[in-house]
Description:
Distance between the termini: 48 Å
Low-confidence stretches: 519-532
Number of helices: 13
CATH topology of the largest domain: Catalase HpII,  Chain A, domain 1
Mean pLDDT: 90
Order of helices and strands: EHEEEEEEHHHEEEHHEEHEHEHHHHHEE
Shape: globular
Number of strands: 16
Largest sheet: 10 strands, antiparallel
Number of domains: 2
CATH superfamily of the largest domain: Catalase core domain
Amino acid sequence: MSDERPALTTRQGHPVSDNQSLRSVGERGPATLENYQFIEKITHFDRERIPERVVHARGTGAHGWFEAYGKIGNEAASKYTRAKVLNETGVRTPVFVRFSTVIGGKDSPETARDPRGFAVKFKTVDGNWDLVGNNLKVFFIRDAIKFPDMIHAFKPDPVTNRQEAWRFYDFISQSPEALHMLTWVKSPWGIPANYREMEGAGVNTYKLVNDEGVAHLVKFHWRPKQGVRNLTSAQAAAIQAQDTGHATKDLHDAIERSEFPEWEFCVQLMTDDAHDELDFDPLDDTKLWPEEKFPLLPVGRMVLDRNPDNVFAETEQAAFGTGVLVDGIDFSDDKMLQGRTLSYSDTQRYRVGPNYLQLPVNAPQEKARAHTNQRDGQMAHYVDDSGANRHINYEPSSLGGLREAPKPEKEYHQWVEGHLGRYQTSRTADDYRQAGERYRSFEDWEREDLIANIGGDLKQCPEPIQLRMVWHLWHCDHDYGRRVAQAAGIDLSKAKDLPPLEGRPAPGERRQAATYTNGRPEDNVPAGGNRK
């Protein structure tokens, strides 16, 4: 039977033959700037809502400070990074933290079953560092080109203006990489009790770089000293019946009582290579790094001790970006990180304005004040300091103005080599394994809530989506799939008889790595970029 649906195109009318992957240098290599399809898609998505945020619209924030221990685990922090903020002890770096829900609008309830944003702006002596993460340690997708599709599926139907379960599960059923995150979100971990008793995670893979120019892959984590507490659906419903902003009130009132919430900052570290011994790519945001192999190592602590004076001026105009890093912390080739780095700052320039970094909540501290040749634009209310000669707003110049900063003694230089193309990771056997492990790790009451939530949702979905979802969950864990099928009244045997998704590896199998040729058989090379 032929498919008569129109083919997907860009706004320029160009056919889109691959809507799943960014263009990158090799399977694991960095994304390239000429990703026109992605840039058109993500920059339009960034502008879909005015004036509130497209995602993370409902939020609250607080001021505080961060203090490093000077060590990472039992080693001096300088072994891994030259970032002063992670090395200098006795220094309290000012921070502003914004907590949020993801999908709902600005006035949506804080009891929503939804990931929670956990964004930290460090105002370091070397300038701002933004760590933009969530409460959960994994994500739904591994490639940023899918982000607009994911959010569209989770947002209200454009016709009914209601969030519909079938839209959510339609997307998930065709994206098995999301099964791990689904298992977290539909469990009680999908509804934190409040912001103070909530973990945080950078989610993306970054790099730490030391004075010798040696890099390590790193994941960042926040562990609350107050402990972790989550809500079942019934508990959340009881709170929502009385209060739609309970988490904002809880944080504000605790700080006013001088019960200052505190988190310990931890990292997981890996050597900077592909780690072929793992059955997943450490750059894949849908995967956890197993803590028994890569333990959480304490780095410092953060305390929130002051509420905003004005919610709009500080919390609503607070603007974060994953590309805001300081020397000693660097990008990895994580495709979600590379896409977010464009999208987040582009969104802020649209939402708040091109001069959003002049606002006090976003500006760096005085010791690291901005010196740029950037000028004008909407709502410019001062001119960045450009040196002694105010006539010179360019570089280089022999007449004054700004100069380039000194380069590090030993810079980090990553070797990159590979064929330019669009890739999915070939290490996808784990799309089911980690979801099953998470299911088995839950306590009985958490599993029961998870099954009830997914089962109740699937009752609202068409049969093809029901069957595919049960097929996926059964491959994660037989008990998982069986209990969901029972809860939703779905024929388990009919679900189990489905074939694997077309074009995707069956559970437990690796995707065949693509090969490319330059026209001669001897030029065939593996898709993954080589590292030296």
